[in-house]
Amino acid sequence: MLGRLAKNLRFFGFDTLYVGELEKERRSQDKDGEEKPLEDKEILEFAIDTGRIILTKDDQFALRDPERVILIEGPNVRDQFAFLKRRLGLSFNFDQANSRCYKCNEILEKIPKSIVEGRVKDKTFAAIEEYWECSKCKKLYWKGSHFDLIHGLLAKFDGIRDDL
Fold first, then answer.
1. For the chain, does the N or the C end have fewer beta carbons within 10 angstroms?
2. Given this structure, which CATH class describes domain 95-146?
3. How many Å from the N-terminal Cα to the C-terminal Cα in the chain?
């Protein structure tokens, strides 16, 4: 439901999961790999057990526990970020060193440039000095043009970010 929001929050260092990931993990642990969606009760129990809050667009689910479940407003990620900033008082500061893996939510580790040689394009290797790697999925990250303040990811959150 809010997978794009969850993944974008990871760039700003927020530890996020979304139901699709939990269901996929459950299928991988299930012997027959049966596709069985998580029930609302299971999602709420997981949040309580792990000390998480739940973000949802499901107004009925939000009524189950108004302190732990937040009904997200806004049609797109930018508006949803603005809502979270207002509702929860979140600060959005981008720092690659505190960012999490977009793909699997793990904390990124700074790695020596020499380790990425041959794993990125020669032009990228020559231009970029700092790299981070996900310890789980091994995805590489660097602050390249896709983070550009004019047209990239960070521009999408201009006016919402606190680090401008």
1. C
2. mainly beta
3. 30
Q: Give whole-number Cα distances, 141 to 40, 60, 96, 100, 116, in Å.
A: 34, 38, 8, 10, 10
And the tokens for 95? 């720092």
pLDDT of residue 40 exceeding 70, the answer is yes
Q: Which tens digits make up the pLDDT trace of 110-123?
A: 999 999 999 999 99
How far apart are the C-alpha atoms of 65 and 45, rounded to whole Å? 11
Q: Kindly report, as residue ranges, where domains of CATH 2.20.25 are found in the chain.
A: 95-146
